[in-house]
Model the fold of this input.
Amino acid sequence: MAFAAINSAGTPITAIEEAFVTEPSLKKRVYDAIGHTPQHAPLFEDLARYTSSLQARAASTSLPIVPPPTDGPAAKKRKIQNGSSVETAQASVSVKDAPVQFYVQDISFAMPQRKKLTLEVTAGYLRTRNQATKEVEFGIPMDKIRHALCLPVPEKTQKQFNFCIVPEFADGITSPPEGTSAPDAMVFTVADGPAKAAFSESGQQIGNNPGETAEALIRKLLNENMPNTNFVRPDEREFVSATPEAHRKGEKAYHVKAFRGSKEGYLFLLSTGILFAFKKPLLFFSFDTVESVSYTSVLQHTFNLNIIARPRNGSEEDNQEFEFSMIDQENFGGIDEYIKRHGLQDSSLAEARRAKVYNVNAPKNTEEAAAAEATGAEEESELQKAQRELEDQEDEEDEEDYDPGSDGESEGSGSSSDEDSDEDEFHENAENVSEGDEEEIKEELGSEAEDGDDE
Done:
């Protein structure tokens, strides 16, 4: 009871003051509860100390403090440091504190950051950890992963694989709902060969069975933890390039080189969609987002592939067109077969792409053409008719005056520009003759003028 008297007198309790210094309303409720039930004071103090310890641990790992529940709208997704987003502050704590199932050191990442990190898999997250600071850099909830692709890296002497993890709203086509954010796509590279730095939670090395590769190990472990998808790999039954892998002789290539604007990348035609990688932004056209496909600028050696995609949460008005240019003509047949096999609409001859037809040289043997011509004749005015007849008469006179032996020059209706050019040519030739010939030329010109007067 003495404690209650002290509390009612306003004497602060240190543990509660420290725990709820930023939450005065909650602190008041705690004091009120202690005032009504002083026997529970030790319990509230223990809860306050525990809250302070959580706050201290969060501060040491740069974690946001979990806010108390409110009656307001649901908390928006928040970015964690240098990486992808997670749904709530509580999820942020989970992605950092979830126990590790296995991890692989010295993994080279290209997205969302270009650096070497430790790849970690937990029960609910795929995350990365800085190897120097030991801090979690970014992560993706396993249940948010929509597409997982394992692809050979093109144009490398040593065989490597790129793992492309595409979470929801990170395909480059469908944007997250307004006011929210989404995890970025993740791309990391694994060399072909045994896993040299893969470990279980206890620190025991794994993936060292005979013939087991790091690529196969990571695919297996991630497939076991992703609830909504499994890894997709290239399949020659889907598409294989007409040009083999130049840097690894005898090996088939499953990509075609293409440009999006000035950005060079690779197109992979897979069983679940078309990927353009490995530059930012990564684009993945799953079949349910492809509205149509078309070919443009088909030349002798190259052609362009155009994909019109519709966001999953959008309408036809939100359609976007993506053009991939300078694709080798040798791959046209394989790409066209892939598009037809998967029933992707070929809109190469769609109305928007067809050349506009103008009725300039339309045939006049149809009834409509004859009617239009008759109507035009009736509407011709007398002045227009007289002008047309005069022009026709002049054309006939020009044909009668035409002399085939005059080097193609017609007399009669010559243009003023032709006369000026003839005069300039005469003066130029006159300057090149000698002084002794000038008189002879003048005499000839004079005689021609007299002949003209006589006529």
Remarks:
- The CA atoms of residues 321 and 338 lie 19 Å apart.
- The domain at 234-371 is CATH 2.30.29.30 (PH-domain like).
- The two ends are 146 Å apart (CA to CA).
